[in-house]
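[SOLVED] Need 3D model of a two-part complex

Original post:
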Amino acid sequence: MSTAVPTTRGSRFTGAAANYIDERTSISGLVKELGRKIFPDHWSFMLGEVALYSFVTILLSGTFLTFFFQPSMATVTYEGSYIPLKGIDMSAAYQSALDISFDIRGGLLFRQIHHWAALLFIAAIGLHMVRIYFTGAFRKPREINWVIGFVLFILALAEGFTGYSLPDDLLSGNGLRIIDGLIKGLPIVGTWISYLLFGGEFPGNDIVARLFSLHILLLPAILVAALGVHLLLMVINKHTQFAGPGRTNENVVGVPILPVFAAKAGGFFFVVFGIIVLIAAFFTINPIWVYGPYDPSPVSAGTQPDWYIGFADGALRLMPPGLEFVWLNHTWSFNIIIPVVVLGLFIVTVAIYPFVEAWITGDKREHHIAERPRNAPTRTAIGAAGVTFYCVLWAAAGSDLISTHFMLTIEGVTHTLQALVFVGPFVAYHLAKRIALGLQKKDREIALHGFESGRIVRLPGGEYVEIHEQLSEYERWRLVSFVDYKPLMLRPDSRGRISFAQRMRAGLSRWFFEDRISPISRTQIEESDHH
Amino acid sequence: MGIRKTTRMAKNSSPSATAGRKANRRHPLATVALIVIGLVSTGGAYALFSSTASADTPAAVSGAASAAQGEKLFAANCATCHGMNAQGTSVGPSLYGVGAASVSFQVGTGRMPLAQQGPQAEQKPAQFTDAQVADLAAWVASLAPGPGIPDSKYLQGNGNSATGAELFRVNCAMCHNVAGAGGALTEGKFAPALTGVTAAHIYEAMVTGPQNMPVFNDANLTPSQKSDIITYLKYLDTNPSPGGIDLGNLGPVSEGLFIWIFGLGAVVGVTIWIAAKAN
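Solution:
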């Protein structure tokens, strides 16, 4: 402790307590390391935090729900408070979910908190991923953490889906039936897997208990472990930052965890928690009581999965009929196989993208400056195409509601979306690329010649000119500091050959970097300063 | 425009251009906030207005219906499509055997007279008074036997709502949605929402099967089962969702839209606020 500070009784106590703990755990090294971790300030860097805080909310509210939920499919007769279900036979799982909603104090609020927080959790993860992608924050040394984050996203989807299936109401049963159909549609192994999963023919008597174990034990355990590694790697790799005065690839400018960031983050947790609770208090989510107990015969209009599974549901909805046939004594359901394969490829592409891009650029340097999307036009364009593809499938999951609410025919909506799945990504790709290049040109123009001041001056010769104001050094720094790539040059290797892989790489590199706005050189800047 | 103004000002007074720019600008989200407030208030006012406007649906009145009066009304308003003797033409079906229930439903809910050809007859404000509807129904019923006006004892909403809910899920929910919020059918047709529909119209729709709806006759659903279904629908009408605002009871799509727009929107707003530099 510093001798300059007069010791009060309070500080003597904290000092002694800290010393006591440190002597037994040697934790000071860790605190020094973690406490000095720097967080740069930018709103988009907080999306991961939002996901984390919603996850904490989910854990807390979920624990409450486990106190009362019965994961059993045994048949019981409902005698609870909700009148339009009195005397109806249902599973114990559904009954306990109804009891949580109507007969346990605060139960409905907790159920709604849990469900709304889950929706927010995955939405925040999605936005967080998109931010990481478009700023190139997945580049070395953060590729591994991208993959871990991707695993977290998949785990969150699995958590969401298993949770959606637990109340055993009509909606969750219909969702499970679609999964069952999807699994059975896989050739040869499908039926076996389905019988294994459901313990016999759908729906069986086991599935709720099995999904419950996954939902509250296995999946959260893996999720928490992966989350720990994700955060640890973030500390080890340091945070990215946008280019700016004094911000280089070698430093991080921001506030340290202790004390400023920790205080802000603690407050932010309560803000996120508060928003979730407010929503849960005022807005119904998944009114299981109107859906009634699961019964394989009825299917309600407007049966959809929660939003994050929507893209998969949409892919199924967009498949044209007539793709199912019998061959070699097996039914080949290409209306199932095609969407499964396409979505599988899409998801794998997302997972391995950092490695693909690293291979194409051949860039082995570390990158700690987050790129502005415009400075990587091809990546931005690929991202826009991917987002468009995802969003079209996502919209397709709501095709029936789009048609009723916008007074359209459902066939028209479906056919339009079918066309958009193919056309949309191309349009988005070219649009995004042109916009990114255009913005780069504008940046270049402003950096060289300043911005238009709006002041028109008449010269003695009668000519009118508009005065351009130069940017300050600081402002210009933002515009000119970015990594520039050029297409890879094909060079023969030591044996004088050009391999196929090398050719492919050069081709892809050309695709990535052919259209480029060359960055401003120092001489150009100096020249412009002399004007 | 902001840049133009502030640089001039900075030249004249402030030595620091950035400070002047910061101080003189409205918060970048001020416009957005203003638009949101405007939209929410107009939308809210509209919702309030439209809900109060539709609240007073006319109660079913049956007096001494006059078939003679109905015939005159029919000739003046319906005969163009259905023919002078209700025998049907190339643009409208014959009305022999449709019964009083059909007339009461189609004309009473405003679906008939048809405003224009379309995928299906849209509901609109009823064109005739209840007495006129009863007159028309009496005349059409006099042409040939058909389903009649339902007995009021089935329309009281005093059946078993649990049975009604189960019957509704099995027989009706695939088109009308479990909460009666409506749903899409093929070729631009749709199953309408059932909120606020009178008990008599629900019953008549079941026995006559208007438009794309199948007929649920008394062998299929007994009158007391129909009464149970009506009881359930009235329960939904009179008991708001225990969980709060129901977002139209449209299921996960409206919930997803809500969390992305309002949930994530609010949270992102907060992140921007936290990360904003103090002025």
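Edit: The longest strand of chain B covers residues 183-184.
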